Task: inverse folding
């Protein structure tokens, strides 16, 4: 999917919501456990109930890899289901990869070619040659960690290196990489006060913003400082939406939570 197509979808749906499909067998309704593939059945129901309210889904691969081959099959079925039934949806493989160049190329093939995701999350720690292989794929997006939502973000990311915080160095340096127009960045919703500074460095790039919901991030604050002319934000909530109910009404309850966020987003877009 091109960035322009994503922008169009945000306008059509009046939403910049990304729903995180972080499926934990201990948290899904018990009656699903008798299914052959409970993870896929759960995802399908959530997707069918919420697709009109969001522009993106983000399965975090850890929640699939934890169940071995069965989990990877559930991930494959989920991305295929999305691509076949809702091709207008932007898909994020949240895998946080990045390695020496030839290895990164194989990671990129796994998520862009084999699983046909629109984007993958990547860690910047190994530098330019670990990220550039992802950027060579046409109409695919590499979402690089910049300032993460967790407490540990203060261990390295905000430390000053050569007179500037490390996350700012990451943002600035990455702009000079080949095909950097295919970069998006992760900035945690719990770090709302940093968005104005971040926008000075990357005024137009899309930001994936996790941390609304279970981690307590504030949507209004993020939008106040983080929105670009084209919205430029994908706000992710995972547990806050998909585990709204642990009963038979789980998909309906997820849709209600997603609707609440979409309503807020519609007003924010209108008042932009
Ligand atoms: O890359 C991410 O998506 C990510 C980066 C970050 O800084 N913080 C963060 O929470 N995430 C992911 O976003 C999701 C947040 O889930 P909830 O806290 O349940 O909404 C999880 O899949 C996290 O792994």
Result:
């Amino acid at each position: 999917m091109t960035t322009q197509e994503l922008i169009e979808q945000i306008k059509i749906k009046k939403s910049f919501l990304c729903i995180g499909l972080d499926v934990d067998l201990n948290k899904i309704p018990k009656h699903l456990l008798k299914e052959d593939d409970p993870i896929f059945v759960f995802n399908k129901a959530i997707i069918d109930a919420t697709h009109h309210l969001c522009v993106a889904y983000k399965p975090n691969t850890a929640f699939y890899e934890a169940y071995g081959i069965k989990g990877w099959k559930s991930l494959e079925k989920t991305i295929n289901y999305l691509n076949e039934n809702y091709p207008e949806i932007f898909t994020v493989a949240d895998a946080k990869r990045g390695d020496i160049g030839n290895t990164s190329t194989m990671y990129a093939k796994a998520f862009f070619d084999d699983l046909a995701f629109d984007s993958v999350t990547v860690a910047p720690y190994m530098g330019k040659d670990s990220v550039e292989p992802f950027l060579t794929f046409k109409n695919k997006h590499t979402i690089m960690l910049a300032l993460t939502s967790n407490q540990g973000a203060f261990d390295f990311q905000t430390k000053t290196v050569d007179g500037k915080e490390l996350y700012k160095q990451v943002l600035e340096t990455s702009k000079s990489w080949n095909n950097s127009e295919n970069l998006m960045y992760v900035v945690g919703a719990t770090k709302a006060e940093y968005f104005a500074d971040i926008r000075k460095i990357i005024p137009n790039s899309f930001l994936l913003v996790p941390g609304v919901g279970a981690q307590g991030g504030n949507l209004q604050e993020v939008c106040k400082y983080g929105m670009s002319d084209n919205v430029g934000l994908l706000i992710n909530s995972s547990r806050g939406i998909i585990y709204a109910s642990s009963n038979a009404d789980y998909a309906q309850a997820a849709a209600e939570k997603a609707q609440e966020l979409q309503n807020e987003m519609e007003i924010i877009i209108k008042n932009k």
In short: The beta strands are 17-20, 56-58, 90-97, 119-122, 141-147, 160-161, 164-165, 183-187, 207-210, 233-237.
